[in-house]
Each structure stands twice: as structure tokens, then as C-alpha cells.
From TrEMBL:
It comes from Chondrus crispus (Carrageen Irish moss). This is Mitogen-activated protein kinase 3 MPK3. Pfam families: Pkinase. ATP binds at residue 65. Keywords: ATP-binding, Kinase, Nucleotide-binding, Serine/threonine-protein kinase, Transferase. Gene3D superfamilies: Phosphorylase Kinase, domain 1, Transferase(Phosphotransferase) domain 1. It comes from the Eukaryota. The keyword Ligase does not apply. Residues 35-324 form the Protein kinase domain. One of its GO terms (molecular function) is ATP binding. InterPro entries: Kinase-like_dom_sf (IPR011009), MAPK (IPR050117), Prot_kinase_dom (IPR000719), Protein_kinase_ATP_BS (IPR017441), Ser/Thr_kinase_AS (IPR008271). Belongs to the protein kinase superfamily.
């Protein structure tokens, strides 16, 4: 792949399949004839999402249109990263990508791209915000599935970096899938500085807010702890108005960092902030925050919400915690067979042309798969 934008010859990603164009919410929405569009299920800055039926597999799917895909290089790289990550993962608790296509009329100069994923009924944020009763069994099953997915993700040397209730999808059977990998990054093996602006603030680990260099998979464990706490409270644990307020809310629970915790903060500015603003706070017990809650769950939660990331429980340790004894099965908690290659993230000056070319190549993989399937079935 020539990242300077030299053309690469690729067959058109939809040259052999009929398409239909619809007008939805004031915009054109195109899809191949294998998908029968149902209704819009979401709209935001990212684009429009519609539910559909894949008539070839008889499965319900979600089709997302991302308009102006190469207008913003940062957003384009995030979209490409997520496409590649979802194709790399293969786990029941990680949303699966089923197709990527571009408008047939545009060819390699496309402006929009469509992704097709599994369709889920709701997300954890909507459940928490509803009046639906959540029993102890719900919390246990959700926690287990989140950790199973995270084990698979972390084994590929990937940090999700944006775990929150709205990025955890559910269906009516309480099956759970993690989605939205646009901010995911590799776990650094050196002191590489990673951006502070990851994760929605309320679920952001303290080391991110204190500008640690080279933070680790422990940032995702902190977010899981925040999500579990929110399940119990039916409201966010740390709803900070800004970063300073967020750190005060966090240390109101974790207590003032110990001398060893302070020594682990490898940002002088962050360490000074703690010493000047967050001292003399006692750690609160989980039972004080969550009365009448399962003691084993509170023990697990207390091991997740630890200020010092090096002292935080790992996903492997969490899965073997007594709270999950009834569900834990090592043979049903697979790791990812290979580490993910974040090659696109290392291209500092990748051009829009090159990004379009790489997205085109992603779409082409699915077209080749479709043609091979049809040939095997004798349908072409």
C-alpha cells in the first residue's frame, strides 16, 4: 500500500451486485439487494444506522452510513481502525462486522461508506436509565460477559479506551457485546506518550487524567468498575463536571494516593496536582457505597477501582474471582489467536487518497467473499 496516494488497481467492491437507494431522514441510503431495509434505529454525528434483514442468511443486521468518510483524516483513521479490529476479533461478546460496502455509482472515488454489523436490541445505558428491574443475576452475567470480551481484546494487545454503558449492546436474552473501537490503541511496550483525551470522562481512569505516559490495559479495568458501580446505583459513579472535579470524586472513593502511588505517577505535573489538591482523604469501603450488595461483588469492585493501575486487578484475575465462580469456564473464555497490527496508526502523514484506498480494500475483501460464496452455491 502506497500511503502517498498512488492508485492501486482493485475490482469495484459492488460491481456485480444490484443495489437499492432509499431516502431516510433527509439523506440517501444505499444498500445491496441482499439487505431488506427496515427502519432507522439511530442517528448522530457518526451517521445514520438502520435495521435490515439479510435475506441470504435470514439474520437481522444494523447498517451504518458514514457520510464524507475522508473529509476528516482523524475520523477516517478511526473508522478504518474499527473496521480492521472488528474483522480481527472473533468473539461472541464483541460485535461482529459482517460487511463493508461503498455506493456502487461512486467507485474508488466514493465519499460515503456503509458498515454492516450484528443488530442488537438496546444498550446498557438505556437499561440503566429505564425502570426495568435489575437483579443480582443480571449484574453477574453482564460483568462476566464484559470480562470475557475484554480478555479476548486484551490478548490481542488492544486497549479499548472507551468502555461505557452506551458501548455495551444487549439483546432480549441478556446476551452482551462490546462495540465502538474507534479509540482503541495498542498496549505500548515503552514509555510512548498516549493522548489524554480518551474515554468519556466519567469512566476515565485516574492515570489518564493525570497524564501518565504509557498507560496500560488497567485503564479498561477501571472503566469496567465504573460500569458495575453504575449498574448498582442506576446512576454514574463519578459524574465529574470537569477533570479536576472528576479527580476529586474519584479520590473521595479511592482515598488519597499512598506514597508508592504518588511515586508511580510518572508525570511531574500530575504528581504535583495530587500533592496540592487531593491529600488527606480516607478510602471508602465498598459496603459503605453499596449497602446490601453481594460481598463478593463488592470485593471484585474494590479491586477494580484502585487508584494505582499497577495494583488494579487484571481481566484474567477478575474472571477467576469467587464472584464469578458459577460462570467461569476457562475453556469458554478464548484469547485472540494473534496480536492486532496497528499499522495505520503509525502512518503520521497518511493522505486522504491513501485512506480512501485502504477503506476500498476493506470493502473489496467482503465482495470477494460474497462472490466465492455465490460460486460455491452455484448462484452466479
Amino acid at each position: 500500500m502506497d500511503v502517498d496516494g498512488a492508485a492501486q488497481t482493485l475490482p469495484p467492491p459492488h460491481s456485480t451486485f444490484a443495489t437499492h437507494c432509499y431516502s431516510l431522514l433527509g439523506t440517501n441510503f444505499e444498500c445491496p439487494d441482499r439487505y431488506h431495509l427496515n427502519r432507522p434505529v439511530g442517528q448522530g454525528a457518526y451517521g445514520i444506522v438502520c435495521s435490515a434483514l439479510d435475506v441470504r442468511t435470514n439474520e437481522r443486521v444494523a447498517i451504518k452510513k458514514i457520510a464524507g468518510i475522508v473529509d476528516n483524516v482523524i475520523d477516517s483513521k478511526r473508522t478504518l481502525r474499527e473496521m480492521k479490529l472488528l474483522r480481527h476479533f472473533d468473539h461472541d461478546n464483541v460485535i461482529r462486522i459482517k460487511d463493508v460496502y461503498v455506493p456502487s455509482r461512486d467507485g474508488p472515488n466514493f465519499q460515503d461508506v456503509y458498515t454492516v454489523t450484528e443488530l442488537m436490541d438496546t444498550d446498557l445505558h438505556q437499561i440503566i436509565s429505564s425502570n426495568q428491574e435489575l437483579k443480582g443475576e443480571h449484574c453477574q452475567y453482564f460483568t462476566y460477559q464484559i470480562l470475557k470480551a475484554l480478555k479476548h481484546i486484551h490478548s490481542a494487545n488492544v486497549l479499548h479506551r472507551d468502555l461505557k454503558p452506551s458501548n455495551i449492546l444487549l439483546n432480549g436474552n441478556c446476551d452482551l457485546k462490546i462495540c465502538d473501537f474507534g479509540l482503541a490503541r495498542g498496549d505500548p511496550n515503552d514509555h510512548e506518550a498516549l493522548t489524554v483525551y480518551v474515554a468519556t470522562r466519567w469512566y476515565r481512569a485516574p492515570e489518564i487524567m493525570l497524564s501518565y505516559r504509557g498507560y496500560t490495559k488497567a485503564v479498561d479495568i477501571w472503566s469496567v468498575g465504573c460500569i458495575i458501580g453504575e449498574l448498582l446505583l442506576r446512576r454514574p459513579m463519578f459524574p465529574g463536571r470537569d477533570t479536576v472535579h472528576q479527580l476529586h470524586l474519584v479520590t473521595n472513593v479511592t482515598g488519597t494516593p499512598t506514597p508508592s502511588d504518588l511515586a508511580s505517577i510518572n508525570s511531574e505535573k500530575g504528581r504535583q496536582f495530587v500533592e496540592q489538591n487531593l491529600m488527606n482523604k480516607p478510602r471508602k469501603s465498598m459496603s459503605e457505597l453499596f449497602p446490601n450488595v453481594n460481598e463478593q461483588l463488592l470485593d471484585l469492585l474494590g479491586r477494580m477501582l484502585v487508584f494505582n493501575p499497577s495494583q488494579r486487578i487484571t481481566v484474567e484475575q477478575a474472571l477467576t474471582h469467587p464472584y464469578l465462580l458459577d460462570l467461569h469456564d476457562e475453556y469458554d473464555e478464548p484469547v485472540c489467536p494473534s496480536v492486532f497490527n496497528f499499522e495505520c496508526d503509525h502512518m503520521e502523514k497518511v493522505s486522504k487518497t491513501a485512506l480512501r484506498q485502504m477503506i476500498w480494500a476493506e470493502a473489496n475483501m467482503y465482495r470477494q467473499r460474497d462472490m466465492e460464496e455465490l460460486e460455491r452455491q452455484g448462484m452466479r
